[in-house]
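Query structure, 191 tokens:
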């Protein structure tokens, strides 16, 4: 298979000198950028925002816009939240060229997800993955091991959840903290 390249495209920017204030690209700005890229033959994108589909109404407007760009059909991949998946979003995603969604599921243990403040349950994640795959969209799931609030059974729950979900790809990562993040403030430097 040939190598597939997806051009990074960010819809939200967080300038370092301004902390976490969001600067959103407007839909006309996005249209202009996509049309300029299409004229250069660029039609594959990786939306690099932490959660492309949140807020959901804005994501749906972007997906409608993607379908109107002239030239070769756009193909795209993105990070997404499992608790922001519905049939309308998935229909628009499929019709606008979505090839894959990346979900940060992190754990199959509901108590760990609560501690992480993920805002969803393993059952919701399972439903979102199965629904997404049902639309023919590939799913990559990210998992974390070594979270400080994990219990001995947490890994077993995650592995069972991972197997039941049947994501196309699974990435398992070790928990780390980054300076000045909520995890750093809660757990500090870990051994």
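Result returned for the query:
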């Amino acid at each position: 298979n040939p190598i597939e390249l997806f051009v990074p495209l960010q819809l939200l920017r967080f300038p370092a000198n301004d902390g976490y204030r969001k600067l959103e690209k407007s839909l006309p700005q996005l249209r202009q950028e996509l049309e300029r890229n299409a004229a250069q033959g660029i039609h594959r994108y990786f939306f690099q925002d932490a959660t492309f589909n949140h807020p959901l109404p804005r994501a749906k407007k972007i997906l409608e816009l993607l379908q109107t760009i002239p030239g070769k059909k756009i193909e795209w991949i993105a990070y997404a939240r499992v608790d922001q998946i519905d049939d309308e979003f998935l229909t628009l995603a499929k019709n606008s060229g979505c090839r894959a969604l990346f979900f940060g599921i992190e754990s199959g243990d509901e108590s760990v997800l609560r501690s992480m403040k993920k805002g969803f349950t393993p059952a919701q994640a399972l439903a979102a993955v199965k629904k997404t795959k049902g639309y023919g969209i590939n799913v990559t799931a990210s998992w974390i091991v070594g979270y400080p609030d994990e219990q001995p059974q947490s890994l077993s729950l995650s592995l069972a959840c991972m197997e039941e979900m049947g994501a196309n790809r699974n990435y398992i990562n070790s928990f780390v903290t980054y300076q000045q993040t909520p995890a750093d403030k809660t757990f500090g430097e870990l051994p």
